[in-house]
Amino acid sequence: MFYTDNKLQYPVRVEKPDPLFARALQQAIGGVEGEIRVAMQYFFQACGARGNPKFRDLLMNTAAEELGHIEMLATAVAMNLEGAPLSLKEEVANDPVGGAVLGGINLKNLLSAGLSAMPVDSDGVPFDMSHIYASGNIAADMSANVTAESTGRILATRLYNMTNDPGMKDMLSYLIARDTMHQNQWMAALEELGGATGAFPIPNSFPQEQEKQEFSYAYLGFQQDGSAPAPGRWSEGQSIDGKGQFVSQPMQPLGPEPNLGPAKPNSGAQKEQL
Amino acid sequence: MFYTDNKLQYPVRVEKPDPLFARALQQAIGGVEGEIRVAMQYFFQACGARGNPKFRDLLMNTAAEELGHIEMLATAVAMNLEGAPLSLKEEVANDPVGGAVLGGINLKNLLSAGLSAMPVDSDGVPFDMSHIYASGNIAADMSANVTAESTGRILATRLYNMTNDPGMKDMLSYLIARDTMHQNQWMAALEELGGATGAFPIPNSFPQEQEKQEFSYAYLGFQQDGSAPAPGRWSEGQSIDGKGQFVSQPMQPLGPEPNLGPAKPNSGAQKEQL
Amino acid sequence: MFYTDNKLQYPVRVEKPDPLFARALQQAIGGVEGEIRVAMQYFFQACGARGNPKFRDLLMNTAAEELGHIEMLATAVAMNLEGAPLSLKEEVANDPVGGAVLGGINLKNLLSAGLSAMPVDSDGVPFDMSHIYASGNIAADMSANVTAESTGRILATRLYNMTNDPGMKDMLSYLIARDTMHQNQWMAALEELGGATGAFPIPNSFPQEQEKQEFSYAYLGFQQDGSAPAPGRWSEGQSIDGKGQFVSQPMQPLGPEPNLGPAKPNSGAQKEQL
Amino acid sequence: MFYTDNKLQYPVRVEKPDPLFARALQQAIGGVEGEIRVAMQYFFQACGARGNPKFRDLLMNTAAEELGHIEMLATAVAMNLEGAPLSLKEEVANDPVGGAVLGGINLKNLLSAGLSAMPVDSDGVPFDMSHIYASGNIAADMSANVTAESTGRILATRLYNMTNDPGMKDMLSYLIARDTMHQNQWMAALEELGGATGAFPIPNSFPQEQEKQEFSYAYLGFQQDGSAPAPGRWSEGQSIDGKGQFVSQPMQPLGPEPNLGPAKPNSGAQKEQL
Amino acid sequence: MFYTDNKLQYPVRVEKPDPLFARALQQAIGGVEGEIRVAMQYFFQACGARGNPKFRDLLMNTAAEELGHIEMLATAVAMNLEGAPLSLKEEVANDPVGGAVLGGINLKNLLSAGLSAMPVDSDGVPFDMSHIYASGNIAADMSANVTAESTGRILATRLYNMTNDPGMKDMLSYLIARDTMHQNQWMAALEELGGATGAFPIPNSFPQEQEKQEFSYAYLGFQQDGSAPAPGRWSEGQSIDGKGQFVSQPMQPLGPEPNLGPAKPNSGAQKEQL
Amino acid sequence: MFYTDNKLQYPVRVEKPDPLFARALQQAIGGVEGEIRVAMQYFFQACGARGNPKFRDLLMNTAAEELGHIEMLATAVAMNLEGAPLSLKEEVANDPVGGAVLGGINLKNLLSAGLSAMPVDSDGVPFDMSHIYASGNIAADMSANVTAESTGRILATRLYNMTNDPGMKDMLSYLIARDTMHQNQWMAALEELGGATGAFPIPNSFPQEQEKQEFSYAYLGFQQDGSAPAPGRWSEGQSIDGKGQFVSQPMQPLGPEPNLGPAKPNSGAQKEQL
C-alpha cells in the first residue's frame, strides 16, 4: 500500500525555461531507460518475489523512491515548458531562434497535454510496459536492475552535459547520485545471492549436466573464412562463473539444410506448394 | 557483411509434433527475452561500437550466431505445427483433447503464417525493436547482454522442463549451453573493462564530484512510518564499486509541494484554471 | 513523494487457485481499463495540474490508492497461478480439463514471469502509456476519469460474475465499491467546476462566437437517402450545456471534390503523376 | 453499409502552406484524441450495440460524419505540405527560417508518404486501435464519447490558436462547432439513459448490495502522516448518483504483508528461492 | 464525405454460434491483412492521390466498400459470441469441451467489449495504423493493394475451410469473391500505369543512369563458400522490366571493416572508449 | 546458419557529417519500408517455405544481403552524427542554423544511443515486427516483396534527392540499384509461379466455384447518388487473371439492418439494454 505527502523528494528549480530541454527530459520519464520503467520494474518484481521476503521489501522500498523521481521530472518538464510559444507563424517569421525552438519541441506536450509532461520519450513515443523485466528469478532481476540503472545514469549524465541551468544541473546531480547507489545496491543483492560463482549461470537451479556441456564455455567463431574470432578474456582461462575453461574454435553447421516438405491442402498455400 | 550456407547450426528434430509447444517456442523467437532480441541487440551494439575494435568483432560474431538460433527455432515451430487441425468444429465435437490443443494454439500461426513461425511471442504479440539496448557505452551494453542471456537461459530451461520430446530437449540443451557461454562471455568483457571497481558506476567517464555525493551510497528508506528499510549487504560495508561506504537512513522530502500556478490563456485549459 | 508500508490495502484470499482466472485478472492490471491506467492517469494529471491546488492533491491522493490496487491484483494473479502445470504433455494426455486450463492460461505468465503477474492484459498485450489521458484541462480530465472508472467497474463486475471463489469475490466487491466512489468523486469535481452548464462545452475558455455556430447544436444526418437521422433527446429541446437549441437536419457536402494536382518532381512519385 | 460522393463535407482552404502546421494537424488525424479515434470508436460501438436500436443508428450516423472529418484534415495536411523543401543542405545553409521549418516537419510525411497525410500523430507515432473504447455498456460508451469530444475540442482550439491562416481558422471553427454538438449529443443520450442518478454507478445492472458498501461513498486518505485528504464536494453531502452520503477518512492497510512463499521447482527460479 | 444506410452490404447469418470462430474472425477485422487495414489504406491513398483524379475516385469508392466489410465481420463476431459462457468454474468442471471453448476465446471480447467485436486480431493484439501503406507513388500503392488483397484472400479461404456453418461459409464466399475482384482491379490499375515494363522499377521517375547500374540486374550470391546462389528465372534472361539482362555472381565485400574511432567526451561513453 | 567477415558490403563515405540527414537515414533502417523489414521478411519467409526448396535458398540468400544493408546504413548514421552538438543552450543562442539542426535531430540517437544508429524510423518510432509478411503462400510472399522493394526504392530516391554529399549519393545509388534488381527478382519468381494468369487470384489453390462468382469480377459502385463509379481498365474487358470479364454496377445493400437484440444478464451492460 502506498502513501504520499504531496511534496517533492528533492527541489526542482528552473532558472530559465527551455522547451527543448523539456523535450530531452521526457526521455528520462518515458524512455526505455527512464523512471517509469524502473519504478514499475521494481514494483512488479516485488509483487512476484518468492523466497526470502527481504528482497520484496528492498524492491518495494526503491519502487516508492522512483515514483518520486517521476514526479520531480514531470514537474521539471512543465516548468521548462513555461514560455513555449503557442502559435507558429509569428515566431518563425520574426525569430529564427524561436522558430528553431518551436520546431524542436515535442508538439504533443502542447497539443495533448497543455504544456505538461507526458509518459512518452523525447520523440513522443509512449512508454510501453513490455519493458518491465520481472522474470521470477531474483538473480536475473538484479542483473536487469543493474542494467536499468546503468543506462539510466548514462542518460542522466548526458542530460547534465546538455544543460546550463543551475537548477536543472542540481536536480540531475541528485538523480545521478541515486543511480550510483542503485547500481551498487543491486550488485550488493547479487553478492548476497552468491556473486559470479554462486549465482551464475542464471538460473542456477537448472542441472548443468543437462546442458550440452561441450558448448558451455566455447567461444565459437562465425567468420566467413573459417578463421578464429577476435580473442579476449572470453577465449581463454577459467570461466567467470568458475565452472569451466574458456576455449575458442570456428563453428561448422551441425545440422542439414532444413526441408519442411509440401504444404498441407486447405492451408491457403499455392497449388505449386502442395 | 553476412553470408549463409542454408544449413542449420544444430540439428532440429521433433518426434511428435505438438502445436501447443510450438506456441511456447514462439516466446524464444519473438519474446522480449528471445533470439531476435539478442541477435539484433548485438548487431546494433556492434554497428555503433566506438573505441577498441575487438568489441565490434566480438559483438558481430555473436550476432551471426544468434541469427542461426532464430532459424533453428523457426524450423522447430513449423515442425511442431505439422498436424495442427485446420478446422474448428469437428475437433472440438469429437475430441476434447484435440479441442484443448486447438484452443491453445496461437491462431495467427495458422491464419497469417500457414503453420509457420512468426516474429511474435507466445501470445502472438509482435516483437518491437525498442527492446534493442545499444547505449553507446560499452560497459552498459555488456551489462544489458548479461541480463539478456540470463532471461534467455531462464526461458530455455522452462521450455526444456515443459516438453518430453527428445529432439526438442536436445535442441534446447544446446541453446542452454550457449546461454551459459554468453553469460560468461559478456562478464569476461566486463572484466576486461575493469570489473566492478573499474567499470562502475557506469558511465565511469562522468566525474563523481559532480554528483550529489551524500546520496551516492545511501540506502534511503521510504517506509510510511519513518522506520529503516530492510537491511542487507546494501546497507553497510564498502560499496561494491569500492568508492564509498553504504549507509542506511529514512528519507524526508527535501522539496516543497510543487505549484505550477495558473494555466496560460489560449492553452486550452478551463477558465477556472487561468 | 511516495511511501509504502509493504502491506496490502485490502485482504487477498484465494481458496482454490485458478490459472484461467489469473489470466482474466490480468485485464484488471494491464488492460486499457485496468489499474495501471488509472494510477498513472491520476498521477500525470496531478503532476500537470494548474489552477486551484486542491485538484492536484485530490488526484495524487487517489493515485496512491490505485497503486495499492495494482499490488492487490498482482498478488491475486500470483496466488491463482499456484498449481498451474509446468509441463504440457502429460496434462493434455491424461486430463482434458487440465489441458483446457493449460491451453487457456497466458503462457507468458509462466515463461516470462515464473508464475507471477505482468503489466499486460488478459491476452498478454503489454499496457502502453498512450492511454494516460492528461489534457491540461481539468474538466476534460475529470470526464476522462469518470469514463475510466466506468469501464473499470464494468470489468470488475464481469470478473465478479466469472468466479466462484469467495476470496476473489470479496476482493472484487471492495474494488467495485471503490469504483462507485471514484465515479462519484470525479463527477463531484466536475460539479465544483460548474457542472453541465458551467464546464461545457469543454474547454469553456474558448469564445463560442469564434466557432461556426450554425453547426454547434445541429444533429446532422448522413443517411445515404437524405432522410433525417434517428431522433432523440439530441435532436430537439435545449442543449445540455444550456447554450443552444438542438435542431436536426440532413447534411449536404459544402466543399468540392478535392484535387491536390500533380506531384512535385523529385518527390518519388511516378512520372504519370508529375 | 457506407457510401461516398467524393466531395468534402466542408471547404478546406489554405492561403499559405505551412509544413509545421501540417505536422500539428496530424495530431487531429492520428492522435489519441483525433478523428480516426472517434470515427472508429462510434463505428465499433454501433456494431456491438445491444438494446434499443436507435443508439446504433445514432452512433453509425455520427461515425459517417467523422470519416468526413478525417478526409478534410488529410486534405489540409497535404495542402500545407505543398512548398516543403525536398532537400536538406541548401535550405539550412541559406535560410535559418527554412531550416527551422525543415527541422520541424515530420520527415515521414515526406519520406514515407510523399507530402501527404498519414494516420499518425504530430510526432509520427501511428494510431493504435486499442484506443477504441466500446465496452458493451451503452452508458459507459456515452461517457467515453463525451471525453473523446472534450479532448478533441481542446485540441481543435489549440490548433485554432496556433495558426493565422484564414482558411485553416475557418475549417477549424467548423470542427470546433461539431465538437460542441457532439459533447452535447452524447450527454443527451446519457440523459435518455437516466442521467446521473439513473445511469450511475455504471454499470447500473450490478446489484449494489454485492459491493462492499462501507467503501462506496468514502473519500479515503492516503497521506503519509495519516491526515485527512483535501476536502471538496467529494467529501461531504449526498453522492452525485443520489445513492449515498460522502464521508472522508484516512485509510489504514486492511491486509497483511503478502508472502508468496518459495518458488516451485522447475520454474526457472534461483536455488535460493526454492 | 461518407454516408450510411445502416444496412448490411451482404447478409450475415450464423446457424450455430461458435465463440472460437469469433476469435478467428477477429483476424479478418483487426489483423494486418484484415479489413480495417484495406479500408484505411485505400482511404489514405485516396486522400493523398496526386495526378489523374480517377485514381482518387477508384480508391475512395473501394474504401467505402471495405468499411461495409468491417461492419459485416463485426456483426458476425457478435453473433458467434452469443452463447459464450460468462463464468469459468462450472464450465470447466462439467464440460471439457465447453472448457476448451472458454479457454480458446479471446477473453477481451468478453471482458472489455461485452461479447462484441473489437479492432484487434485473433490474439487480441490491437491493429496499429503503421500498416497503412500510402506512399505518394500511385504504382507502389497499387502493388501494395495487390499484396493486401492476396493476404486477405488467403485469410478468408483459411476461415472458410475452418468453419462448417452455412451462414458463415456464405458470407465468406462473398468476401473471397470481392478479394478476387480487388486483386484484379489493382492489377488493372497497374496495367493502366504501364504494366511491368512501364511502371517498373518503381518509382519510374528516377533516372536510372544515376543508379549504380552494374548492380541493377545482378543476382548476387551471399553463400559462405563463395558458390553461386540458387538459379532461376531471376538469374538469366531479360529482366522483367525489360531494361536489362539478369546475371548471377558471388559477392565480395567492397568496403573495409568500419571503424567509428573513439567516442566523444561528454557523450556518456566509458573512459576506455574515449 | 550465418557468417560474417566484419567488412562492409559497399563503401560508406561521408564528406560532411549532417545530423539531420542521419535522422532521415533512420527511416531506411527502421521505417516500415526499411532494411530491417526486408531482411527479416525474407528470413521468415525462408524459414517457413514449403514446396520447391529453391525458393528457400533464394529468400535466405537475399536476407543475408539485406543484413549487410542495415550495417551500411547504421554506419552511415553514426558517421553523419559526428559533429552533432551535445549541449542545447549555446548552439541555439549563437547559431540559428546550428539550433535548427539540433532541433531537427532525433534526440534519442544522442540520449539513448550515444550518437549511433537505432532500429527506429526517422521520428524515433521503433520498428515493430508485425510488418514481417510471411503468409505461407509463396505467391503472396513474392507480391509482398515486390511491394517492399518498391516502397524501399522510393524512399532511397527521396534520400538521394535530399542530400548533396557525394559519399552518401554513391552509397544510395548502390542501394537503389539493388532495389531495382530485387523488384525484378521477385517478379521473376512470380513468373516462375505462373504469372498473372497462373498465380492469381492468390491463393490459386482455392476452388473458384466456391466463391460467390457473380461478384468476382464486378466493379461495384458505392456512390451516394447511385451513379456508376469511375471507369477504367478495371471496369471492362477481360480480367487480368484471364478468368472472367470485368463489369461495372452500382451496389445496393443485400442485407437488412443488423439487430443484436438485448444484452445478456451478468454481461456488464446497463439495465436498459437487458
TrEMBL record, chains A, B, C, D, E, F:
Cofactors, names only: Ca(2+); Mn(2+)
A family per Pfam: Mn_catalase
Region (Disordered): 226-274
Gene Ontology terms for molecular function: metal ion binding
Cofactor note: Binds 1 Ca(2+) ion per subunit.
CDD domains: Mn_catalase
Thylakoid in keyword set: no
UniProt binding sites for Mn(2+) 2: 66
Binding site for Mn(2+) 1: 35, 69, 149, 182
Keyword vocabulary terms for this entry: Calcium, Manganese, Metal-binding
InterPro entries hit by this protein: Ferritin-like (IPR012347), Ferritin-like_SF (IPR009078), Mn_catalase (IPR007760), Mn_catalase_dom (IPR039377)
Family note: Belongs to the manganese catalase family.
Protein name: Mn-containing catalase
Organism name: Rhizobium rosettiformans
